[in-house]
Design brief:
InterPro entries: CheY-like_superfamily, P-loop_NTPase, ParA/MinD_ATPase. It is built from 17 helices and 13 strands. By secondary structure, the chain is an alpha/beta fold. About 40% of the residues are buried.
Length: about 400
């Protein structure tokens, strides 16, 4: 029995629903090979779309897909990023990874990342049909909630002391005001020198470490017991009290924490540490937008450029990185301006934040936001502009 007949019989028997829409995404040679294997005629309920290995999948292509079969190469950062994006953006659609040579360890890794199953390349119609049927059964017996994940922004610093945490906390507060009842949460990922809780005057009952050590006990109840409240709508997960080794973080557990937060809140903000490790890069890769904070100094711009090179080397798209210049003084004569920053970094600048050192430091010492101390703060006004730009683009929510 060919794949056409198998599909028709499965629909008649109720194994597959009549509205089945199996989307196959692969590069040209594999699509051509599959086309030849089915005799040049794709069966009803199956459609194929040709995309290069790392090319992102436009939303229009997804359409009403009930299952997605996508080509994956673990050696290609772009391909893995595409896989993560599909899993994050369409958690309710079973995802099948099509891979050339899948080891047992790789299959386990992909399954932990939310992949329903793995199929070999080049695609064999009979094998594909079997995997599709099994995924369909799992979908019906364990349905995934049709839920969009909240936008995720990671705030990084060019050098220590450039004011990234100040921007992260105020950005999170503004996002919370535009998140409706869902609110926003800021997570202090600086395990050794985190100050988010201090800056916002939060004494939470738990810390990030409680979530990282929870293992399989991680759930919404544990999350609730760990979260602190800063202002109305803004929740906080503080850094651990004790200094922890950076290498102690389990990447998979951290990503589970982030995923749970994105299911619960309207926006999620990560305050990243100054040091870069595999887990900080994994968190950055999961973000819709990375805010790279720098200052108008040679040292800061030099390190910002190195950060951009690091991001590029691990497959982070240039479009996902936004440069924000902090502590900009309104002086008539300037040695460096924002255009100079853009040319130096060969990267666009999202915007600037005015220097209000006494006000910002004084409010943070009191555990308050600047607008709570001074309503017409230039600092907060600039952060609001940045927030608006982000909400209109990379952090746009679909309510």
């Amino acid at each position: 029995m060919g794949i056409h007949e198998q599909l028709a019989q499965s629909i008649r028997e109720g194994t597959l629903k009549s509205d089945t829409d199996i989307l196959v995404i692969a590069s040209g040679p594999y699509i051509s090979a599959f086309d030849a294997a089915v005799g040049g005629r794709f069966p009803a309920g199956v459609r194929a779309h040709e995309l290069s290995l790392a090319e992102q999948v436009p939303e229009a292509i997804i359409g009403d897909a009930t299952q997605i079969v996508v080509e994956v190469d673990p050696r290609d950062a772009g391909a893995m990023r595409r896989l993560s994006a599909l899993r994050n953006d369409y958690p309710h659609i079973p995802l099948i990874a099509a891979i050339g040579d899948a080891s047992v360890s790789l299959v386990r890794t992909l399954v932990r990342q939310g992949v329903s199953d793995v199929v070999a390349l080049p695609l064999e119609p009979d094998e594909l049909m079997q995997v599709v049927l099994e995924a369909s059964v799992r979908r019906d017996t364990q349905p995934r909630p049709a839920q969009k994940l909240a936008p995720l922004v990671a705030v990084a610093r060019s050098i220590g002391g450039c004011g990234a945490t100040s921007i992260a906390t105020h950005l999170a507060a503004d996002l919370a005001e535009h998140a409706g009842d869902a609110g926003a949460v800021i997570v202090d990922l600086d395990l050794q020198f985190g100050n988010v809780g201090i800056y916002l005057g939060v004494n939470a009952r738990g810390t990030l470490n409680d979530l990282l050590e929870a293992g399989d006990r991680l759930d919404d109840d544990l999350l609730t017991s760990t979260i602190g409240e800063a202002t109305e709508g803004l929740s906080v997960i503080t850094a651990p009290e004790a200094i922890l080794p950076l290498e102690s973080v389990d990447i998979d557990q951290l990503l589970r924490v982030i995923h749970l937060l994105r299911q619960r809140f309207g926006y999620v903000v990560l305050d990243l540490p100054a040091n870069w490790t595999n887990w900080t890069l994994s968190a950055a890769l999961a973000a819709n937008s990375i805010i790279l904070v720098c200052e108008l100094s040679i040292a800061s711009l030099r390190q910002a450029r190195r950060r951009l090179e690091l991001f590029s080397s691990v497959g982070i798209e240039s479009s996902a990185v936004e440069i924000v210049v902090n502590r900009v003084e309104n002086r008539l004569f300037k040695t460096i301006d924002l255009d100079d920053v853009s040319r130096t970094l060969n990267h666009r600048v999202l915007g600037k934040v005015s220097l209000e050192a006494p006000l910002v430091s004084t409010s943070q010492d009191q555990g308050m936001l600047t607008n709570a101390v001074h309503r017409k703060s230039k600092f907060m006004a600039d952060v609001r502009k940045l927030s608006q730009l982000l909400r209109d683009s990379s952090l746009k929510r679909e309510d």
